[in-house]
Amino acid sequence: MTTTESSANLLREVALIACGRREGKTGSCASCARKAPALLNIASTGALDALAAAICGNHGGACQDCHTKAETIINETVGVCTV
Ligand SMILES: [Zn+2]
Ligand SMILES: [Zn+2]
Q1: How many domains is the chain built from?
Q2: Ligand 2 center to 48 CA (angstroms)
Q3: What is d(CA 53, CA 66) in angstroms, rounded to the nearest whole number?
């Protein structure tokens, strides 16, 4: 029952998805790791567009790639964040 640990794992996962998950890659870069708490906050509200923009770093609208990442993050965190 270590919620701190599971949320740390979740943050790592979010950072990795935002950074670009691919085979053999086990961690995100430092900059994506720094963004992860904010991304997780947005994901918990279910705001897909805002999350995509935050990943992309472009407030005028995210690219398709970042939209896909945002969907993945929301899909993968929704099940975990239902307390
Ligand atoms: Zn990165
Ligand atoms: Zn983008």
Answers
A1: 1
A2: 13
A3: 7
